[in-house]
Amino acid sequence: MILVGTSGWQYRDWRGRFYPDGLPQWLWLEHFAARFATVEVNNAFYRLPERDTFAAWRARTPDDFWVAVKMSRYLTHIKRLRDPAEPVARFLSRATALGDRLGPVLLQLPPNLPADPDTLDATLRRFPAEVRVAVEPRHPSWWTATTRAVLERRRAALVWADRLGRPVAPRWRTTDFGYLRLHEGRARPHPRYGPAALASWVRRLTDAFAADEPAYVYFNNDPGGAAVVDAAAFAALARRTGRPVSRVPGNAGAGDDRSGPAGA
């Protein structure tokens, strides 16, 4: 299945666009999860929530909802992947409260962190086999055969990323699931994606991954509700390929209840 969502759900400028004006913010997660089947949680990068928070997210969302979680910056940006045992153990002690709702763990590396495949390998070893991990390096020195071999050996996905309609990383397939982040499109109103750019990414995903391999797609272009609109457009294009696709809103309007089953 292609699972389509957004990077986060608590954006004030989505009120009146995606969230009805009268809906209290404490119910936004329920509204979101009725219309999307997955979300990428970025705030864990800045401050790791307590285990009770992860457990509450599980209790408040449907059985078919998955939460991808961005790893704490303490490991990636402060420790810079050194001494990963304690940060990974602390992260997992909390995030695993999601149970089977836990999607991939995102390791986004600093743009000024040059390649260190051995340290990356030591970090990935700390994750149990049942936890999917996606890695987003951002320094060009990582694009080597050695890096690719580490990801393949540890069955971690290289994050495919887009900015302004262009890939910013190699499109390596390193394991049996995909992870795509779309940061900023070139269409108007900014930062929307146009149909040609979305269709290109649909084609790349379906060429690389089989129908029974999950591909997680998250729109990070949140201003003005662009992520919601583009996620729905991407899902519509993906369905035309015959692939199963997770639910998305029927449109970007506030109060839209046409969540429907996948593929509807």
Automatic annotation (TrEMBL):
Biased composition, class Basic and acidic residues, residue ranges: 255-264
PANTHER family: DUF72 DOMAIN-CONTAINING PROTEIN (PTHR30348:SF4), UNCHARACTERIZED PROTEIN YECE (PTHR30348)
Organism, scientific name: Micromonospora thermarum
Transmembrane intervals: none
Gene3D superfamilies: Protein of unknown function UPF0759
Region (Disordered) location: 240-264
Pfam families tied to this protein: DUF72
SUPFAM superfamilies referenced in this protein's UniProt entry, alphabetically: TM1631-like (SSF117396)
Cited InterPro entries: DUF72, UPF0759_sf
Domain of life: Bacteria
Classification lineage: Bacteria, Bacillati, Actinomycetota, Actinomycetes, Micromonosporales
Protein name: DUF72 domain-containing protein
